[in-house]
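re: ur question from the group chat, yeah i did fold both. here u go
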Amino acid sequence: MKYRTDIDGLRAVAVGGVVLFHAFPTLLTGGFIGVDVFFVLSGFLITAIIRSDAEAGTFSIAGFYERRFRRILPALLAMVAATSLAAIVILPPSELRNYGKSLAGVGLFVSNIVFWNDSGYFDTASADKPLLHTWSLAVEEQFYIVWPIVAALLVRLGRRRLLAGFVWATVMLSLLAAIAAVRYSPSQAFYLLPYRAWELGMGALLATGAVPPLRQQWAREGASWAGLALIVVPMLAYTEATPFPGLAALPPCLGALLILHAGQGAETRVGRMLSWRPMLFVGLVSYSFYLWHWPLLVLPRIALNRPLTAVEAAVAVAVALGLAALSLRYVEKPFRGRGTIALSRRSVLTASLVACIGLIGIGAGLFATRGFQAFAAPEIVAAERAVGSINPLRKTCHNDEGTDVLGPVGRCMGGAPLRSNGGYQVLLWGDSHADHLAAGFDRLGREQGFAFRQASVSGCDTLAILDTDDRRKACADFHRKALAEAARQPGLRAIVISSRWSKSLPGRAAILKSEPGAIRQMHDKLTQMVQLIRAQIGPRPAIILIGSTPEFDFWPATCLARAAKSGMGRGQCTHAVAADRRWGPKADRVLTGIEGVTVILPRRSFCRGDRCQTVAGDKILYRDDDHLTNEGAWFVARQAAAAIAAARPAARASDPR
């Protein structure tokens, strides 16, 4: 292919968007779409090379992978080597263990699958994973396992129309799958190849001649300006809340295709803008710039145990750009093409295999040793134990899927041993903020002699029981089943309701576009819910509302582990301003205004003003930013002891089944 300066300029736009988004998220809220532009560029360039070689009769799979490995591995290995050394020094054991898993994923080119598999409810924040950015490389390499063979074969057979049809079909099927996946499984849509293949396929459409040519200069100019707008506008308009990739990824991908298409055979004004010398420089170093920028933003943040300031982030970006320039000169160029380092194809392929096996081996070693946990100081181990302090009943009894399925009653009870009638005396009911209290109520139940039943579902507070919206049907049905079951318990003494009120109230305010309206609605809904409970169960069982749990913008247990690893002070981890300081107290005031209930406010024990504690004595109370450890659950549950002890069972007895 003839070298096109506008392509390097487009690379600069793509990598610039990604880096600015990562370094200064509020400056370019949609900069993440740069990755999608890269996918289109990759699909175009690689497919064009495959087509050219196949038409010339020189294509071979070994030759294709030799070029790929020369292109991607040297710079990748340099970044991974430096990042791994820094990770061993900086990361506490659990994070180093997870780093090892991702390192092995890089060696196998499946890091996208690793990160998708780890994107669960209690997973470490993505911003704390030094190799997270390698997911996009894995997607590309998975695409190029099968695509070169199919494309080359159809070109060699002269089946141009069949090839174009195959690419169009791939694009359409993958896009439709992505649109569906964004709605039902967003993390799957983001990380996995089947939902990203259409983006690489967009570039392949152009390279295979499946898109009609632009013959008039005015058409080329119009297409290039439209393409630029389709990239720039999403960069400015999209946010992390935008459902993505799916249909929202179509404008930037189409924009990249239009700019590439307009520049074929003629120059455009947009092409000349993209060929500006500083743009070319960034475009030429874009691959290494992408590789270096992320670990240089993540590892200092972990080492300092706080977010980077704007100046620090700017320095990290500047260092990444400098390392990228050095990498291009001394790492990429010597190996790219035939390079200046003379290696046979066999030597390149063998060295690449050995290097990948090395990454897998080192990663497996870090994982197997739990990040060298045996060498960690006791305070680090204690902090990391808190990160894993999760309700033992959670796996069986907490519904993390948002369905209407209640956990089996016989396996979702704790506290005192069951009585002869087999029923329970306390229902612990709500969302994940009920789930995180279960260990505390288990201990309280054993002390006071009551059995409790856990009924909790993620992201769904108990007020959903009043909803008639079909979109919340499963959530509402879950809570209706829980209440109906509780009504059949002959000795029911109390219903303890705990939800993430700090999120529920602002969610209502956003829908109603009125804070006072949201407060009134929440008050009315809570009153109606209490009336519904009384209608189904009667006047005697106590209704205990647990107020908001203070939330933070960091994980206290992880913060403590990092502080112990670095030797820095832990004060910023043990006391901090609550992230929900606006909505939490307001939600608590709504709860205290409900008649006929007992209200327990954890905030009064955790906080003095806006500053809240995350530890009590030597006990760590939080496992992540808003969920309590089992010790934290006891810290809250014992505040409900008097209310439960004073509660009387329901007046009527019925079948407990």
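okk and heres the other one u asked abt
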Amino acid sequence: MKNLLNPKWILFLNSIPLLILSFILYNDYSIIKSLLDEETHSLWFQFSSALTLLFVGNLAFAIYHYIKKIELNYNYAIYSSIFYLVYLYCYFQHLNEIVPSTIPDWMISGNLFLHMGTFIMPTLIHSILIFTLIFTKDIDKASALKNFLALIAIPIITYLTSQIGLPILHQIDTNFSIHFIIIAFILTTFLFLFFLIRLFYILILKKGNAWKKYQLAWKIPVCILFPILGLLINNGVSSFSQLFVNTNGIFGNFSSPWFYLFALVNGVLLCLPKFKNYRLELLLFALKTILFTYIVYFFFVFLPYLPFALLAIIALGTGFLMLTPIMIFVIQSIQLYNDFNGLTSQFSKKTLLIIAVVAFSVLPATITFSYIQDKSVIKEALEYVYNPDFEKEYKIDIHSLENTLFSIKASKKSKDAFVFGENLPYLNTYFNWLVLDNLTLSDTKLNYIERIFFGEKNKSREFLNRSTTKDNVTITKANSNSVYNEKQHAWKSTIDLEITNHDRDLSEYATKINLPEGCYISDYYLYVGDKKEYGLLTEKKSALWVFNNIRNENKDPGLLYYLNKNTIAFKVFPFAINETRKTGIEILHKEPISLTIDDENFTLGDSLQRNNNLETKNAFYVTATAKKNLQKVIRKPYYHFVVDASIDISNKATIYTDIIEDIIEKQPLEHKSKISLINSYTETFDYNSNWKKNNTKNTFKNGFYLDRAIKNILFETYKKQSIETYPIIVVLSNNLNKAIIENNFSNYTSNYYESELFYTINADYEITSHSLVNNPLETVNKVSSIPSKNTISCLKYEQNGQTYLLKDNNQLSVLPNATIDFDNASNKNWENGIKMQTQYLHSIFHPKEYQKEWIELIRASFASHIMNPYTSFIVVENEAQKAALLSKQQKVLSGNKALDLDEETPQMSEPSLLLLLAIVLLFFYYKKIH
């Protein structure tokens, strides 16, 4: 412990924490600075300057003592204690002014109260340890009993003084009383921690026979009973029968058996006597070093709460358990130091240091390795579900996936808990960084993945969601204008709207716009008050996150983003009663189009100005004019039966085999049928005489993942580019309501032009039709038989030796293409829009490079100022919202595409959880003294 007088500890316990704290504060300030008034700016400058001076002062002490090769002394301890306590006092006095209540919580990185305590407390504890060493130089003369009496006296005197002094202070000026109480609280807490640490320092080093003889009398309670009792109380366990129930903890979810086991084993190791066998001593040294990581972890977990320990003791009685980590930290540090010195007679210092470093790294390395495994599993699961390689065979580690999903849910649930709840402090932060790239998975995606792999759906958390209806918010005025660009051979059209809320306060306008092929949104505006604000073009998830947060504050966001390859979501919020708001969009398109927004129809462009002399061969698209000269093709159908093989359907297997044979017998088709058995995975084979064996030997398990099965079929149709055949998709299941489908299949219907329908048959042979592009689980019609004759044609188009099938209509068609050059993307050029769409279409069926293509398409969107399915136009109210948006965008672009920032509709901002803790403790204290 005497090593703490080495000036190098200033770097670890002061300089590095302050640099991290400064980084956090700077990031928060850079986002909210535009919302702060001049006085608040001045406060930020004053506190940042003071923090800089404190940092420089401590660093000067370190450099001076290092150069002079002298140990730290009471001068440093006095300097650090006084100045940092004064800084903390002033900071917390002005916290509500530094971050005004008008600043939304979502704009700052986290709890600034907690951050300040976390990163400054190491310096204060270091000062207390230095005082302990200085005032206990002669251990034989130090009295553990006197120190213990002083320790007990502080809470007693504090309580008695409060009984007498508080009534007197009530008669004095309120501001003086508050300041006096806070200062007294800080000083008594500082003294309390000093006597606590000094007591255990004396007990460990005391050489008297009495202390040696009866050391187990205090070691067993402190090292074994207190940690286990603390875990039980934290986890809300009232009986040992509930020991391992997953509960919401006060300071975190420490209900895992490992926490209890580590606490017990570590306590026993600390209570063991010295052994003469040096090999056994080396083993115990290594084990204690391994578990020292566990103690250091809890030391840092409770570090920010140490100032409340005295108050908790007075108010709650069992509050002394908050001090257990620091007590054991002192005991174990001294034991390890003594063990190390004792073993140097048998082993070299270099060997012992290597053993110590390796042992100390065991738990962190184990956790890291586990998290890396989780990252691999969740990455593969997300790829399988959201960006599948249809030609790859997946085998997900279900056990690891279940653990990873539990960790994600635990981290999310902590937001609703008292202090940390089901979160594991610091470990969840590490988990989120290493496994999730500081992002998360929404409850929707979590439930979706669980249904696929575990055949179940957990109840989602409920979030605040205002009731909005579109009926009372309608378009009351609409205008459009189109201008033809001769250079681009394309149109630029603007649509201006006036939208009115007729009767409901705080309503939202929300609608969908179906864009024809080859149409792209290149600008968006919304009037905020009397000012016309143009939309920012940003990454889509970041825009949705900011929109929902602003919406929770009743501010002025407007939003445009893709729902699928041709459908746009359009939202404006809020509308007061009878309020009319003006908004508009700009669209680039190659040919004249008709567009509908709600009940308003727009004809954009003039067919008389259409350029009919454009080349018909193009790498990216085929015009409506060129399509008139293409060969028509009528393809022949074949059956593709999709058989439910989920856990709920095993008793229906033989019924479905009979139905399939009956259909093939009564309605035979020219081409051979295919069959897919589906649960979490899809197994596909040709219909033949042995297919029944495949069906009966199939294991019925997990969810009914119909989404993947249909996408597999559509992918095969796209991949073959067959001009002869297409599949009729027939699903056999009695549990269509349990079928797992993410959205619809409109993105996947390339080369599937004959029909937008698929069919389902249950065990009673009832046949219904369903749409591939609209609400697939809803019935379109009941039919008596499956239509098996095709009269719908498509168009055959050949280019560079490759054959494409196009939809037979009077609209431009886009060709999928992967080799796109965006280096010279110019602003609002229609050709850049078609390039982005053609690469997006290619990426849907070729997701191996989806992460790279995702980034490329976002960059191309920014460069060309044209929205694509990965970007969004959003209007925000002020610079702070813009800064928060750009900060979130940077985080998203560095993470996994399938991960989320938050829920679709986040909760309202809540008060600081640490402040809630302080309020509760103060309440109990107030009740005790009145």
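fwiw on the second one: The longest strand covers residues 473-485. The first helix runs from residue 8 to 32. idk if thats what u expected
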